[in-house]
Design brief:
- Helices cover about 35% and strands about 20% of the residues.
- By secondary structure, it is of the alpha/beta class.
- The protein folds into three domains: about 5-130, Rossmann fold; about 140-385, tm_1862 like domain (pyruvate-formate lyase- activating enzyme, Alpha-Beta Horseshoe), CATH 3.80.30.20; about 390-450, OB fold (Dihydrolipoamide Acetyltransferase, E2P), CATH 2.40.50.140.
- Helix 4 (about 115-125) links the parallel strand 5 (about 105) and strand 6 (about 130).
- Helix 2 packs across helix 3, helix 7 (about 225-230) runs parallel beside helix 8 and helix 11 runs parallel beside helix 12.
- The longest helix is centred in the last third of the chain and has 24 residues, at about 360-385.
Length: about 450
Amino acid sequence: MTKKLYISTYGCQMNVYDSARMADILSPLGYSLTQEPANADMAILNTCHIREKASEKTFSELGRLRNLRKAKEEKGKGDMLIAVAGCVAQAEGDEIMKRAPYVNMVFGPQSYHKLPEMLAEATRGAGQVLDTDFPVEPKFDHLPDEAIDTNLSAFLTVQEGCDKFCAFCVVPYTRGAEFSRTTADIISEAKRMIDGGTREITLLGQNVNAYHGLKDDGKSASLAELIYMLSELDGLQRLRYTTSHPLEMTEELCQAHRDVDILMPYLHLPVQAGSDKILEAMNRRHTGDEYRRIIEKLRKYRPDLALSGDFIVGFPGETDADFEDTLQLVRDVKYAQAYSFKYSPRPGTPAAGLADQMIPEEVKSERLARLQALLNEQQLEFNRTFEGKTIPVLLEREGKREGQLVGRSPYMQSVFVQSPAHRIGRIANIIVEEGNANSLRGRIDTGSAQDVA
């Protein structure tokens, strides 16, 4: 009898990948995915510890699941197993067990490959199951080969963990030290994805350009080498990678943006701040000018490269002058897209113990509003530069309007076109008619040979 599995995913693309693999692991045990938690036989919250008030949001969602479980039982529809996975589970597993004793399983991002064993223990009525260890054996060695679902655009984890220890970040404590999968393992998974219909792969890692997986000859491969290997695979039409650290942007990797046709001209390269004083306090280990020189080098090899970034405002000790340095860096680099947040301390991180924590909330909000206004202005300006141009778009799904398809440009923009659904899965040339704040609108170039391919 098929059982229903509900997974709610928060945070980064790594969690999206992990959730998909959890579904793969549980599929042989009779679980199929559902979007409705009310009738689920098992519900998993795959949590993220990066965002503000992550713990409170987790407990709020757990309360909702508890009520749904009670209603399900009262209707005579059986029990619901409740599990918490991901980085909040890793960081606060014992607290979850104490505050939410109705939770059946709590496990970190390095332990989900043991889901069948944890599930068996939980269903035997042995009490709550907690697994937040960092196992010696790589979890990837224990994941199933076959995926139950394959998308046109898919994530592929190649690296986990981080050794950088930025002062504000919990990743080294929740994901552990840097670990890279072997090139053979990655290529094998990529081939299975392509055989299942994937046309675009995004390589994932907390610090993906620190990738150093072993090759068949026992030597270590860089991310650039891995990209060159993957570019040889038949059927793979697009390749991306995220998230990167400026310290790992090697000459070889920069050159790959010039040499590998399927490597998309879009890079997410967080800088976090423009002030050297704040960058040092963050333990970023680079200056604003060093970051600028990296961008200059990348654009030398790939002039049409578009940048995305991350920014934190209101970091402890940030002055008005420090914030102005951030605004100036944004003006100098010019971003196609960016994510920006107000600083909030994460328990256990070095920044949580810094002096000058209490930058007034209204100051943080005002700075964030100014930064986002500049970033939004740049994003709209970037999108409008495509008006009248023809760009290749991977058409991925139907839109909300009748006869509408939604695709993705090489620069990660959402593109809306009117087209029959038979074009889903194709890369079609689109004539852009309008560039908006968050998307492009265009029409199919029906005279293009690529459209009828």
